[in-house]
Give the backbone structure.
Amino acid sequence: MTSIKQVQIAFDCADPARVARFWCEVLGYVIPANWDEYEKTLPPERQGAGAVCSDPTGVGPRLYFQRVPEGKVAKNRVHLDVRVATGLVGQERLDRLEAEAARLVALGATRGRLLLADEYNESCQNMQDIEGNEFCLD
């Protein structure tokens, strides 16, 4: 049996380049240097229909954004947890979540519900990206 070595996460969206730039800022990812060259090889009707961002260290998964005609109408079945407060608890964790949420709101994200720690889980902040896709600051 073979094992999976890499994973790409795909997002449906209206404006792939815009959403890719947003996630580059969120995660410290980059648009691959050869992406523009690749785009030029596509037929005109396919140019701009997709965008990619990747971890410059090669550790994290590649993100792919593909244009779809329909808008988002329901809650995501899969979402990203952006790990900004790993190992922190209490007020220190809340402060880190707040600082990152404020940074992302300035980039166009929308803040959702803050879920406070309980006996099973630490606090996390629900967010939405610039096209309404849910993600969590964890």
